[in-house]
């Protein structure tokens, strides 16, 4: 299974909205990749920003897929940089 950048962003918005008890539309997410630091995301909510590391992205994806009745473990998720940031979920 492959998730595109929009699906990853949606998963992070839902995850952060739930954590902060906000509406997902109140959360903005920007995915990032850095040669030294790898994958991360910057989250904007309630006038504040927060940087999430790759482990946080994996957690959000696991929760997002669980809501769709798909059980995934962290080891099954691989983020890659193509034309956009994508997530591959192995079986």
UniProtKB/TrEMBL annotation:
InterPro entries: Uncharacterised_YxcD. Pfam families: DUF2653 (PF10850). It comes from Paenibacillus lutrae. This is DUF2653 family protein.
């Amino acid at each position: 299974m492959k998730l595109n950048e929009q699906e990853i962003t949606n998963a992070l918005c839902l995850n952060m909205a739930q954590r902060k008890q906000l509406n997902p539309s109140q959360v903005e997410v920007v995915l990032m990749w850095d040669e030294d630091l790898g994958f991360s995301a910057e989250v904007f909510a309630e006038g504040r920003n927060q940087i999430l590391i790759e482990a946080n992205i994996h957690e959000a994806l696991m929760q997002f897929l669980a809501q769709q009745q798909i059980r995934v473990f962290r080891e099954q998720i691989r983020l890659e940089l193509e034309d956009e940031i994508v997530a591959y979920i192995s079986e």
